[in-house]
Amino acid sequence: MTDSRRPSLALSLVAVAAAASLTGCSYFSPTQTESPYAPSDGVEVALSNDVQVQNLLLVGSAKGESGTLSGYAVNSTAAPVDISFAGADGATPIKATIPRARAST
Question: What span is annotated as the signal peptide, if there is one (predicted)?
Fold first, then answer.
C-alpha cells in the first residue's frame, strides 16, 4: 500500500467506527411507537375489554364552572351499553347509551 492511500484508509476507518458507535445510541432508547399513549388532548378510559371511551375531555370557561364533556365511545359488544359519568359535589350525572357494534362488510 502506498503512502498516499493511508490517509484515505484511516479516514474511512474513522468514519465507519463513528457510524457504528452513533447507531448504537438508539439501541438503549425505546421506540416511541412501542409505547401506548393517547395522541390527543383527552384521555382514554377502558371501561372493559369491549367498551372504551377515547379522547375524553371536559371543556369549560373557568375552573369550577360547568363545562362540556366531549369524547368518543367504542362498544364492540353485540348489545347497547349504558354508561354514566358522575359530576362533582352532587352534580347530575351525565348518562349515555353506546350502540352495539355493527358488523363490518
Answer: 1-28
